[in-house]
Amino acid sequence: MLAQASPWHAHALQRTHHSPAQPLPVPRRMEWTTRPGLGPGSEILGTDLRRMRILELGCGPGHNVAYLAARRAAIATGVDLVGLQVRRARSHYGRLAGVTFAAGHALHYLQATDEPYDAICSVFGAVGLVDPKLLLPAIADRLRPGRILAFSVPHPARGGRRPSLDDRPLRDYVAVPDGSRLPIARWEFDTDRWATHLDRAGLRLTAAQEFYGSRGDSCPTTLLITARKG
Fold this sequence. Notes:
By secondary structure, the protein is α/β, with parallel strands linked by helices. It has a single domain (about 5-20, about 45-230), classed as Rossmann fold, CATH 3.40.50. The protein is built from six helices and nine strands. It has helices at about 5-20, 65-70, 85-95, 105-110, 130-140, 190-200; strands at about 55, 75-80, 100-105, 115-125, 145-155, 170-175, 180-185, 205-210, 220-230. The strands form two sheets. It has a seven-stranded mixed β-sheet with strand order 3-2-1-4-5-9-8, with helices on both faces. Strands 6-7 form a two-stranded antiparallel ribbon. The chain is globular and about 45 Å long.
């Protein structure tokens, strides 16, 4: 019921009608921003990902999970709140070795599993959409010592917005294919506040990068954070 009441379910439902699920070729690179080809790829998770266990929180249609498994030989798992997205991901890439997709809330999944991971990532996924006071410690619990968390979020200054001045989420919107916008809550932190929350969870910020959606943008659109456990 939680997933079906979510704006993300409405987004996935419309996306399914517009673009039928079918097998897809494996992407050529891992994307962290809204502009394909911009910024780093999967190398920020590690130079050699062979047999590494990697978890993506909010995997959507599964493109990054497929890339990590097929092109980097990782053992990749994608979790998404919306069952429709998971079914699409399986129809796109379920044929690939080393790929697993699961439906569920990111926090609940982390709390229920005892699997240790070599890297955890979120690309406009669960990080920023789930209370970081709960999610980041759960991520740290599942990361092996010295391993990487990497996540991209909409930049808190995009479109002239301002980052949150406290730890409460701000109102944002999800654009769905029919052109409408559905309200959501999002934690809109600047780098310093993300660093504080990461530190409290036992994770050390190692890099923060800003990216612009196009050359004409006056404000950055994506914030990419990497952190290390321990």
